[in-house]
Design a protein that fits this description.
By secondary structure, the protein is α+β, with helices and mostly antiparallel strands. It has 11 helices and 10 strands. Helix content is 39%, strand content 20%. The N and C termini lie far apart (82 Å). The relative contact order is 0.10.
């Protein structure tokens, strides 16, 4: 065994290429190689001799494999060094342009609204998209069979009890119940909502909604709601934006209003965007209905508040001049790259 290992060491010094090294490996370590052939002599030995012989044979085999592997690495390094010495890289060539992505503009609008209301003392709260009918409708003063449900017909998962929420107002009901009518609330709840609606340029079966709620023992009025809305409108659409309220109807607020902003395109003069009215509706709001307060654990004789809601897509369409809601969910880079820009301060 030692003589075989010594002869391998002598021969490996003279190897000049990988092919010769492979041939040398086959000569010693192949199935019919010299070292492998020594295994056939195991049958001629006693049990005690086999242990010693086997250990020595494994030691020689390991050393032979190490010699060959070291030689291979040295040869491969020499080949690479020679190649690098002969070749040169032109580092003056321009780099390949890597296209950078950008946040979805819906997320940008939602984050902007969140930051605004957090600066006003509001909490951002999340809730389940798979909701109970109780939170989505009943606690919001919309009992079963009420006509107001038609406008929010959604997708039911289990009979008429489990559904995909048609509004994020259910989160408001959950928060009020959690506070047990003892603490004031300032919160907004952005998130996905679902309704049975046609998918076209201005509608989708799934859309993002941003709702807000304020409840306190102070004398909260529509004036406070108007001031809050005006602050948000100027932040989103510019300081020259004016706002107005129009009477409306929602089952969970009383009185209820539509929230309008002056048309950013014509500055109130009238154009195709505002349908010649000079105003654009961006959301709905109102004072929290006493029934909602009472059902959610707040004494309506002591506690007052207001609620409001925006469609995130609606805000983004107005803010960025998008005329097709489906663009927000498109994966065509030619379309979404238009929004890949830095916001102006």
């Amino acid at each position: 065994m030692e003589e075989l290992l010594k002869s391998l060491e002598e021969k490996i010094v003279n190897v000049t290429n990988i092919n010769e090294l492979n041939e040398l490996k086959a000569e010693y370590l192949g199935k019919k190689g010299s070292i492998s052939a020594l295994s056939s002599k195991m049958g001629e030995l006693s049990i005690e001799e086999k242990k010693t012989y086997g250990m020595k044979l494994n030691e020689i085999r390991t050393k032979a494999e190490s010699l060959i592997e070291e030689k291979r690495k040295a040869m491969e390094k020499a080949i690479l060094d020679e190649k690098l010495a002969k070749e040169s890289i032109d580092i003056s060539l321009p780099a390949t342009k890597v296209t950078a992505g950008s946040p979805n503009i819906l997320e940008k609008v939602i984050e902007e609204v969140e930051e605004l209301f957090m600066s006003m003392g509001y909490d951002v709260v999340d809730g389940p998209e798979v909701e109970e009918d109780r939170y989505n409708f009943e606690l919001l003063n919309i009992p079963k069979g009420h006509a107001a449900r038609d406008a929010q017909d959604t997708f039911y998962l289990k009979d008429d009890e489990i559904l995909l929420r048609s509004q994020t107002s259910g989160v408001q009901a959950r928060v009020m119940l959690a506070h047990e009518g003892k603490e004031p609330i300032r919160m907004i709840c952005p998130g996905k909502t679902y309704r049975r609606d046609d998918d076209d340029a201005t509608h989708s079966h799934q859309f993002m909604q941003i709702e807000g709620l304020l409840v306190d023992t102070e004398d909260i009025s529509l004036c406070d709601l108007k001031g809050t809305f005006e602050t948000a409108a100027k932040k989103l659409f510019g300081n020259d934006t004016t706002t107005r309220f129009r009477p409306s109807y929602y089952q969970f607020t009383e009185p209820s209003v539509e929230m309008d902003i002056s048309c950013f395109n014509c500055k109130g003069k009238g154009c195709n965007i505002c349908k010649q009215t000079g105003w654009i509706t961006v959301g709905g709001a109102g004072m929290v209905h006493p029934n909602v307060l009472n059902m959610c654990g707040y004494d309506a004789n002591k506690w007052h508040g207001f609620a409001f809601g925006f469609g995130a897509e609606r805000l983004a369409m107005l803010k960025y001049g998008v005329n097709d809601l489906r663009a927000f969910y498109n994966v065509d880079l030619r379309e979404v790259k238009n929004f890949d820009r830095r916001e102006e301060n």
